[in-house]
Amino acid sequence: MCPIWRLLVLLSLLSVPSALHKQPWRGLVEAHMDRPALARIIAQGLMKHNVEGRIQNLRLMDSLNASGQMAPGMVGRLINGMNLQQQQESSANITNIQLDYSGIRMSFHKEWFSANISLEFDIDLRPSFNNKIIKTHASMNLVVEFWLEKDEFGRRHLVIGNCSVEPSSIHTTVLTEDISPKMKHFLRNLRENLAKVIPHLVESQVCPLISEILRQLDVKLLKSLMEQAAAHKFNQL
């Protein structure tokens, strides 16, 4: 483990209880104590790797046009008579990204745990047939699951499970007012396709980073962090 991560982990451990309790607990333990160490490590790692900048640089319009539902191009399908050059003039930019670093929620059950991360951002769309920028707001929760698994020799290793945006958490809202009746059909289709495309784009940036962050942690240390968080919550019951 590199020195910078050792330092981050050490600083995180200083702020959590050192005593581990061996008493059993039932069901899933929601670790909603003030900034669990593991949540801080994930947040610091995402900030270090500039995850917000990565999301902002996503080629959203290319993904919308490449969507199988709207081939050969979302804008071209919605607006009759548009040629390829006009499609290329359209733009869709992600702005005002807000990832809730301080609100990462950790859940634990024995040697299984998950992280729930909330993020939101605006999308500025400029159709080629209209110079007016259409601003849309998108919000969602991404959940990633991990667990410790023993091999045939009894040694634990980290297994990274599902990492995806919760479908029910995806919300898109058109912020631009004074929309003409002609544009309403366009915006309805836009929102539907954003809900299909955005989750995969966000997952492609956030999930590999979380995997990299946790794989840099020693398995014994990771288990200790899980036990400390669970024991702390158990003490509060």
Task: Write up what this structure looks like.
This protein has one domain (35-77, 88-235): Bactericidal permeability-increasing protein, domain 1. The longest helix is centred in the C-terminal third of the chain and has 35 residues, at 181-215. It has helices at residues 3-13, 37-48, 51-56, 60-66, 74-78, 84-89, 181-215, 219-236, and strands at 29-31, 91-99, 105-109, 112-126, 134-150, 156-165, 171-174. Residues 13-34 and 68-88 have low confidence and may be disordered. It contains eight helices and seven strands; from the N terminus they run αβαααααββββββαα. The protein has 237 residues and is α+β, with helices and mostly antiparallel strands. Strand 4 and strand 5 (134-150) form a beta hairpin. Strands 1, 2, 3, 4, 5, 6 and 7 form a seven-stranded antiparallel β-sheet that branches. It is 42% helix and 27% strand.
List the helices and strands and how they pair.
Elements: H1 3-13, E1 29-31, H2 37-48, H3 51-56, H4 60-66, H5 74-78, H6 84-89, E2 91-99, E3 105-109, E4 112-126, E5 134-150, E6 156-165, E7 171-174, H7 181-215, H8 219-236
Antiparallel strand pairs: 1-3, 2-4, 3-4, 4-5, 5-6, 5-7
Helix pairs in contact: 1-2, 2-7
Give a nutshell description of this structure.
With 237 residues, this protein is an alpha+beta fold. The chain has one domain (35-77, 88-235): Bactericidal permeability-increasing protein, domain 1 (Super Roll), CATH 3.15.10.
